[in-house]
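Why does residue order matter? Because the sequence determines the fold. Keep that principle in mind as you read this record.
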Amino acid sequence: MTFAHNKLTYHSHSEIFKKIKSNVAFIYFLSGGIVETMRNRIALLKDFPNGPLSGYRKSASFDWKKMMTFFYPEEVIKFMEDIYTEIYSNPDCHLSLKSRTFDEIRRDGYKYLNAFKRIKGFAPVHDNDHLNIAVNSILLNFDNGVTLKYLMAYFMVPLVIKSMGTEKHLEYAQDILNYKMIGTFCLTEIGHGTNTSGMRTTATYDVNTKEFVINTPDFEAAKCWSGNLGQSASIATLFAHLITPDGKNHGLHCFLVPLRCPKTLEPYTGIIIGDLGEKAGVNATDNGFVMFNNYRIPKDNLLNKYGDVTDDGEYVASNKGKETVLGSLTNMRMGVVFSSHLLLTKAITIAIRYGAVRRQFGPDGSKEELPIIEYQLHQHRLIPHIAVAYATKMLADKLYLEHSAWTKEALSGGSVPIILIMESHALSAAAKVVCSWSARDGIQECREACAGHGYLKASGISDIRNDHDPSVTYDGENHVLIQQASNVLMKFWPSILNRTELSSPLGSLDFLGTGMDIIAKKWIAKTVDDFNNLDHIIKIYEWINIYLIKSTYDRFQNFKNSGSDKFTAKNSSQVYYSRSLGIAYIQLFTLNLMKQNIIKVQDKPISLVLTKLAKLFGVYNLEKHFLSHLYQGGFASGPEPVTLIQETVLLLCKDLKSEAVALVDAIAPPDFLLRSVIGASNGQIYQNLENNILRTAGSMSKPTWWKEIVDRDYLKKNKL
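Structure:
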């Protein structure tokens, strides 16, 4: 989105999209030369080998290559193919399926990091945001731990410096981008994470030396979980309470804090710094802790865009830059949405390919067993997660591009409307939560759907599951974070009651203006054909949102009117209310986004299959989250609505069964990054399993400790 300085106004949803110059890849369908451009992009993609998956690939109604070009412009596909080639041909980037020691994982992490630095054209930030999306995708498909290291060091920390600092701090950002230092972001403390105001690290200004003195009062106040901090970071963007000489606390501010000598990695005096130890996953990232004892930094190390201290110790507040502070935190949530999409994509690719080859049972009298994907139960277990993967991809791209646009505007000194900041904050909070929960559930289902073979480390799913697991916690604990979205929505209930016309930059709040008309509606579908309609499903989600805004608001007010304080009233309005509202809000936005994107598709088979995915995404989540609300709020009655919802889910899963392999082909990473013997694109799951088992060290030999488990008398008698 391009903003005119101080002239930003929005009047309607259609005008919003006229202003967007950099949208998700659909914009490429609007330009001239569409057919030739499509051919060029498709020519960059290679066919999959013939094999057990060929039948399902041929049965698809659409061309998987055209689907891939739907998401990525030609230059991005070429960029990704070139980088994949570089990674594949570089011995320092080879990944193994075998288990490694904790130290080997850490060492390999830095080996991979250094290899990425040497790849021509590969950088954490490009002028073209589509290339930035590609970089994130490549990194996350390579290794989640390495990705966290790379983006924390060379993207997040420079962004914070640019967002919250001033001209004098830019040299630090440039040194980091030139790989002279490794950065880390220190906010969370041992005793406080979500409640940032409760953090206790202090930075007290010393007027005599023109320095800030940083102190950690006890271990509970130690900064922790910071990526790269454990073993390697040489500089931190650290949040501490700024205290002036008069003893006044001015709240959390961000400081540039040197931690280690960048040449020797020795910690500086006054710092206790260490590693948190082995985790369930992402161990390539060295998460650490740090404590300070009267540690001094120059006054200029305060990132002072929105708050400063004079030489004499007087605090000077400024509103300038506050939107970029929120933007920095929002950016981290965007990363979770991306990683959730990509890790779910890897898992569902493995499970679908496995399910299309694995055969069990068959009709009575038949000698041929059926692929397990032919069974209704298996379709119901997996195919909705393809819809979630596609929906999350569209959502991740959209939120990133919009967020990037307004962040650039803020960094350049332009004006960003409060409504846009508020809306982006609500959307990113809800997206982080719902996407990480959806991926968690989908990855686990994929593991179980691959049965025993899915439990093998060589299947790749267990590593995917462990790498995703922290996403539901970091960058905002999910159950707390989801309420930040619902808090925004509750503010609009008085406007809904007054039938005030509403419009927001990203369109997520536009439907609220007709909220009183929406909430008066009732269930009208009588048949599956009536119900199986994307517009109809979207209208149901609008009703759910309005109903949950009303019921959450009413519950909160009832507790307050009964004498509860605001804190207690909010605490009593979480389960079934504000949490459900945040989920409904982001899912409605996602459905509308999918619809808008489908309208722009000019290839009819792709449009049809994407429409089915959008409907399945909506109906599947309707059944999963909101059936009780439909009845509780009086929208539905009797058994018919439940039956129609269930039948529609089953119908869509059946319709998409023949498309499933091609759908995952279009979004799957290359085999050398998928790293799954049962999910490889050749479909040769048994041959791949055999090769892997036979190559596994020790698989065909007795253990080195064999003497400990055999007859000791026999060993003694035979002098063994």
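Residues 429 and 481 are 6 Å apart (CA to CA).
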